[in-house]
Amino acid sequence: MDTLADYFDSFSLYLKTGSDTHIRKFLEGNRNTQFMSIYRNGFLKSCLSALKANFPSVVNLLGENYFTQIAKKYIVDFPPRQATLVGYGDTFVTFLAKMEPDLPYLKDFALLDLTWLASLNSEESKVWDLLKVNDMISQEVDLSLVPVSLVSSAYLIEVDYDLLDMWLLLKKEKRLNEAIRLSQEKQHIMLWRCSGEIRARVLKKLDLVLLEHLEEGANLEEVTLQALQIEKNFDISDYFSELLQNRLLTLVS
Amino acid sequence: MSLLPLKGLAGINLKPQHYDEALNLIDSSYWFEFHTENFFVGGGPRLDYLQQVAQRFPISLHGVGASLGNVFDNFSEHLREVRKLVKQFNPALVSEHATWSAHQESYFADLLPLPKTDQALQQLCDGIDRYQNAIERPILIENPSNYLDFVSELDEPDFLMEAVKRTGCGLLVDVNNLYISHRNCGLNIQDYFSRIDPSVVGEIHIAGFSQDEQFADALLIDSHGAAVDDQVWHYLSLSLKHFGPVPVLLERDDNIPSFNELRSERDIAQALLNSFRT
């Protein structure tokens, strides 16, 4: 027979293109060579199923049939590069932007789906909670100087449309009872995991500045100074308390 | 490692929709299989559930993506993930497939057939060796479903037994795959059994198949989307007679029914195992 490498090249070519010209020479017996289609169908079906699971709002927005058409093209052009489909579709956002210029908000829905998944499966962080804070206070630690960061499940993203509410609906509902109305207005959104569930919220300018500083590992004093430049009456204690309640902070070791 | 840590017990491959019901089971004779690659995540509810199930029941990690017959560019990274899971959860069984799934940078998310040649055998053995070295324990490798015959120098049982001999791995005999290969390619199942050394068989899989939409019963597909067929139950019985009461695992990955329905099927397998206990 030809080399094993030739076999894998020929089989891979068939899976990607459907052309069986090269793989035929490796077949034996009189079986129907059209049966090869089972392998290509299996490849496409598994990847399609993963994309549907990973991008539920896009599926619900486009409908199953149209999503399937687009997704199959993506699968052939960008097959998975890791031997797991858990996070398959990391380039689907940019692919959609190119494929569907008439639906410019589509990539934003896809980005939210992808970020939700990344947050859900992100590493556990040691959450800085009220118990630990009290413990540090009892040891007379100056909390304002302690470097902190956001937990690893916290993601800050920017989208071009004000679509968080619509996305939350589309993620769960196959059909919307109302027409889609979106404004082209940038939104900054944070997603994070709290007690096993993903939470999402729109960020105001002040939130964004503070959270970006925290993401970089600033301490609370530095964060407060930044905040005071935007809002004169900023009170770090309320803000700090809210961050603790939402299990968003971790200590930088 | 003994290849029979779950001797005489039947299990189910556990899907997320059944996690809570599984955790409420009182019957401790159950064991559960998980697809290894579904847990290549940093954290979150998936790993939490796996941890909870593993604390209550024996588990098996069944790989579907290592592409042992044609290791790919990210294979070392893949093995690091598997090793991490094996160390963390200490599964009773670890298994993979005698197939390929990836080539160069592309992963095809399917269990693709290897030509049964010396060259392919050596490449498969190299993959098994690397996998076993990475996790520091032997694995079981599963026979594929066959839809077409590809060029071969060896028959499938000889191919697999040679892989066992060269690498020290064991075999996971998938009876549903054998039945599909019998119907699709004329494989003789009884002859197949007779050429497998019973001492290397560490697990048996059963599942349901479906007919191809285009070719109907001329092409059976390993869909795991239906109840176990009567013929597969028949061959399970024969396999237990031949291999002894090795652990049996019911697979269901599509058209997933209620947990109780799966339990009923699993209990049939358990009753069969009980009848073959010595």
TrEMBL record, chain A:
GO terms for molecular function: DNA binding. Gene3D superfamilies: DUF2063 (1.10.150.690). InterPro entries: DUF2063, DUF2063_N_sf. It comes from the Bacteria. Keywords: DNA-binding. It holds the Pfam family DUF2063. Residues 22-96 form the Putative DNA-binding domain. This is DNA-binding domain-containing protein. It comes from Marinomonas phaeophyticola. The lineage of its organism: Bacteria, Pseudomonadati, Pseudomonadota, Gammaproteobacteria, Oceanospirillales.
From TrEMBL, chain B:
Signal peptide: none annotated. It comes from the Bacteria. Transmembrane segments: none annotated. This is DUF692 domain-containing protein.
